[in-house]
Amino acid sequence: MEKSDLKPxxxxxxxxxxxxxxxxxxxxxxxxxxxxxxxxxxxxxAGAKQTLGASKLYSDAVxxxxxxxxxAGENFAAGTAAVKNAAKELPKQIExxxxxxxxxxxxxxxxxxxxxxxxxxxxxEGIPMQKSPSKPAPEAAKQPAGKTAEMGKAAAQAVxxxxxxxxxxxxxxxxxxxxxxxxxxxxxxxxxKSIVDDGTEQHSEYHEKRIKAPxxxxxxxxxxxxKHKHDGTNCDDYFETALTEDCAISVVxxxxxxxxxxxxxxRVCAETAAGFLKNSLxxxxxxxxxxxxxxxxxxSTPEFMEGCGMIAALVRxxxxxxxxxxxxxxxxxxxxxxxxxxLGRPAxxxxxxxxxxxxxAVPLYVNGARQTLTVSVQIGDGxxxxxxxxxxxxxxxxxxxxxxxxxxxxxxDFISEKNIVPEVIGGKTRVGRSSADIVMLMTDGVADDYxxxxxxxxRLYLDLCLNGILPxxxxxxxxxxxxPIRYRSVSMSQxxxxxxxxxxxxxxxxxNAMNALWEKREMLxxxxxxxxxxxxGDSPEERLRVWLxxxxxxxxxxxxxxxxxxxxxxxxxxxx
Length: 576
Prior knowledge:
Elements: H1 44-105, H2 138-142, H3 145-158, H4 179-186, E1 206-213, E2 216-223, H5 226-231, E3 237-243, E4 248-254, H6 262-287, H7 291-295, H8 302-334, H9 337-343, E5 356-366, E6 369-379, E7 383-387, E8 397-399, H10 422-425, E9 429-434, E10 438-442, H11 444-447, H12 453-466, E11 485-488, E12 496-499, H13 513-519, H14 540-550, E13 560-566
Antiparallel strand pairs: 1-2, 2-13, 3-4, 4-5, 5-6, 6-9, 7-8, 7-10, 10-13, 11-12
């Protein structure tokens, strides 16, 4: 079908029905024919004959005129009927043409034809064979008969005849890019822009922190996500950590990305909750001398439940204190013209919306063995988990928080007045005791990259070990493939950073690959950055920040924040 045949014809509007009334023109009476004075005949008899003759001529002329009009009317009516019929057939023609266009535009897999050639019955003697009407090509019509025949013969030789019995050709499969190929391509697309100062509180590009005590070490870092770097906006994540003589404290908050001042709400919540817990827990352990004994008792006894209840109450109270601090901060912002100008209106409590994740870890000795009591509260998305670095794959990971979601997909919940009432926040509190020596808290910028949390938090732990952030078991040997991967950083320098990824070591298409890799973790040190004589920082917190800012996962561009509480089991290592 020629392309011109695929063009739909112009719409023909249907003519409204008309009734043509043909009226014969009335003949004027003889006695009313006006005759001028100059036309009056001299003789009355001759004048009468002339009048009758003129009247007859007039009558004949009228009949001819009427007959002509009648024929024109009949032709017009026939034309109108033809237009109506054509209009009725037009939708069918358009539908037929549309089907043809769809058929031609639909992608098809071209296969070799295996149909045998069509046999044409020979013409009977004396009867010429009927040929289907076809319009000759303009070029062929202009050529002589002999030359046209030669062109047809050459065309027939150029087109190979179909071969019966040949197997159909297989359709060509499209090549799909790997995650690594996609990320290498998109790495050059992200741009780095400095934060635009609009007079409101600004957050630094990143923050890292490390605190230590004889029984524990806490490292934490937060970085501005690719999207915020590309847009020149602030990091909305925040964290705060603290240590007392008896426990480790960590609070991580993620400001709502849709709220301009949410970074301030996240900071206020993290700082207030961590400070409250440090002061309250210090006083609690000082006043309750037998508290650790209660926490070390059998978990089914009233003593254990009483001791856990004391700490759980303080963790829940920290969320209430955090929200109260948000309200106090809102009052200050509402009175500041800079914030009213930046928002175009007075600030509201929703402008400070943030998630809230808090955890307290208490090292204990239970029947001579080292254990850890954890109490946590989680409002919103993110992840809180514990890891026992010496346990097997089935028992090493525990999730001690549950991510809240909003009414719609992709939404989350935030700390608010309705979430801190006793009947609600009680359901968001988790208490546990195990041999875990690692407690991790993170915002969704990290948690979503290691989804699902069970079992992928094991991969996160191995990534921290492979990149020199956490100590790694096993003997150090020369680096073995797969080697670390380099991606260009989204920074002012745009230098590439080499990192090692545990997912490179996973067996493809094996549902148990993560557990299998965990069981041989002591043999993985040959794949670490250290084995390849690479280093991304001079301290654990610096290496955590560099890793956090540069690891690549497909579709990951959010702010990132993570804290790691490490409670070593080895007595020699307690002298951190």
